[in-house]
Amino acid sequence: MRIKKIFTIIVLSALLSVFGYNALADEPVHPQLGAAYVKLTDGTKSFALSLSARIDDKRVNIENAPLTVFAVNETGKKQLGRVNTNRSGKAVLNVGPAQALPTDKEGYYNFEVQYAGNAKIGNATKMIHVRDALLEMSFTEKDSTKNILVKVMETNNKGVKTVVKEVPVDFYIKRLFCLYRFGGEKTDSTGVANADFPKYMPGDTTGKVVIVAKILENDTYGTVELVRDYKGGIPLVIEHKAKRGLGDTDAPLWMVYTLLVLLSGVWCHVIYVISLVIRINMAGKRAGQDA
Questions:
Q1: What's the pTM?
Q2: Cα 44 from Cα 243, distance rounded (Å)
């Protein structure tokens, strides 16, 4: 009897395990939704989105998944756009500056990113809570020291611009393949952060460089960037190297005369050899006739 009970318990445990595994297999996978907010120079609000899930203990990027972005406030929510993820599970949605966006009572933008899910992958939601920051850039020069100044402001509920203190601002110069960081500090009591421009930074032929100021992943403002051209670099001097060839008129006269003499000698030898061949041929024909 005891053996039968043990056998029954084992069978029931196996059946419960199988049913439990199948139940878990039928449940949709919980995805991970990522969203980052960036305000560009022209006022465009850009959302960098990503979607992935852990399947069989591996992180898999979800391709061709529709992601929708809403602007939310107390009165409801407004759809800003929809975009599908690429092969890497990433997507970018840009909202132009002309599009009016609702804010809450405290002046914050509340963005909601949604993935509706399907039979295999569950739904997901991500919230972004940011205020709108305004950047202004100016340039000064004193005693051969060039300075870049950035003023950070925000608009209050009454529509008045107020300065923002103690916000980190990073300064970059846009190079061919990267951004070269040359300074960074927090804004002062007037909302201004500044950095000294590198003295020996090369620019284009006019000395122009591209300055990029950024607030990076701030808890209140997200990422905000401002791009401006600045003619403060060292102008690039392009040296035109003279190309020398055998037929160039810019070649020195001694080289021209030497070349003419050498070529003349070669052609004289060629003509002399040809004349010898002709004379030998003619002499052979005469010798044959005399014989």
A1: 0.71
A2: 49
